[in-house]
Amino acid sequence: MIESIRKDEPSVLLLDCGAVFDNQRDKAELILDAMERMGDDALNLGGPEFNFGTEFLEQTRSHASFPYIASNLLYGGSRLPWTREYIIKEVGGIKVAILGILDPDGLARLPDQEQVKGLEVIPPEAALERLLPEVRGKADLVILLSLFDAEKTFALAKAVTGVDVAISSVSDDAFFLSPPKNEKTILLQAKPLGKLLGLLKITFDDKRALIVSDRRYVSLGNSVTDNGEIGRLIEKHKNIQETVQQQKQEKIQKELMEGLQLSPQEFMERHRKELFF
Q1: Which of 22, 141, 206, 248 is the most exposed place for a label (fewest CB within 10 A)?
Q2: pTM: predicted TM-score of the whole model, two decimal places
Q3: Average pLDDT over residues 83-106
Q4: How far is it, in rounded angstroms, from Cα 135 to Cα 133?
Q5: What's the N-to-C CA distance of the chain in angstroms?
C-alpha cells in the first residue's frame, strides 16, 4: 500500500506514533527492520519501546536511518543523545517539523521498571510550550505525533500554540471523521496494530494558508497485495523461531531421557547442583 501511495504522490511522509513493540525482543528487531525497508521517516517512542531498556534502543538506532522522536523525555535531566526532540524535514518544498510525545503513564505500565530507571517524562503541554516557538521559526508545517487517544490529543493541540497537524494512533474510534468546526489544528488518526493507515494530503495556497485536499483511512485488508521483501523478512523470522523452539524441545527431551537412566539419588543430586549453580 505504501509503495502504491508513493507512486501516485512524489512527496510523502511516513510517520509512526509509536508503541510498536511487545515483550519479544527479536520481534522488536523484526519490526524495526521492516520499518527501515518501508522507508519510515520518524518513530515516536512509546512506553513499549522501553521494554528492553535504553541500551537496546541506542543500539538499534545506530542501524536505523529514521530518527527516534522523544519531545518530552529526559534521562538524568538531559535528552537521551540518540533521540531527537524534533526534526525538520523538507518534503515537496515544504519544511515540516515533527515532534512526538509520550504518555506520562506509558513507562509506569511496563512490567520491568528497572529498564526505565532514570527516565523522566515531562508533562506534554510544558514540553510543547518550550519547543513550539523554536520550531515555528524553522518550519512551514508542524506535525505532532501523539500516544494519547484522539480526544486527548486534540485537546493538547488546542492548549498550545503552533500545532498544524496532530496524529493519534491509540484509540479505535472515528473521532477524526467529524472534527470540530473552525479549529486550526487538523486531527488525523491511524488505527492501532496496523489495521488502517491514516492518510492526509496537504497543500498551501498562494498566501501560505494550509489546505487539506484529502483525509481518510486506508484499509490494509486482504485485498492489499503482500510486499514480497517484507514477506521474506517475516518468513525468515518465523523459521528462526521454529528452529529455536525445536532446539529447546530437543534439549528438554534429552535431559528427560538422561534423567530416566539415573537412580533417584543421582537424579536428586543433579537437580540440587543445578539449583545452586
Answers
A1: 206
A2: 0.85
A3: 94
A4: 6
A5: 53
